[in-house]
Design brief:
Layout (H helix, E strand, L loop, with lengths): L48 H9 L4 E2 L2 E2 L10 H19 L3 H12 L3 E8 L2 E8 L2 H22 L4 H13 L6 H15 L2
Antiparallel strand pairs: 1-2, 3-4
Helix pairs in contact: 1-4, 2-5, 3-5, 4-5
Amino acid sequence: MKLFDRWDTSEIKVEEPGLIDYINLRPILVPKTFGRNTQKQFKKTDMHIVERLINRLYVPGHKRKKHFISSGHNAGKTMTIFILVKDCFGIIEKKTEKNPVEVLVKAIENTAMREEVTSFQVGGIMVRKAVITSPQRRIDMVLREFVQGSYQKAIKGKSTMAECLATEIMAAYNSSSDSYAFREKERMEKESMGAR
């Protein structure tokens, strides 16, 4: 069984030991579970990694507690997003001549931050401290940054969202500073190094 009847995911291996249990690559035709995993804690590990990317694309402008940029373009439009992801994977396959899901997985491994900074109150002051990021959160943050970085480029420029997302994923795959996610990882790890 191939993803979108085009790409085989059964041979892809996750190389980073910390993410092996959290990146699901089981063979699936259409990455859609219709919310079966929403009511159970940590159950999103059972969702295919492409479905998690698709779920992020429903609200690409959402950043923390506000809509950084309006997300009305995609909200609730499943077929629009499926076509967008298929076009994006087609562009990646054409440019890299590799399986686009393999490129996505390697991009996630390259840009998943290992440390971040948290703040807590001690007496009357706020203290910042470096903490290790959990594997589930690492993947969530990377997918969010892929989508937000590409959405900002698509809104401001003339490229389509599929082209911008493909460019973002390929830049992350190559560990290039052109990738918004890679720059965020570098920034966050530098901050956490200063807060140790």
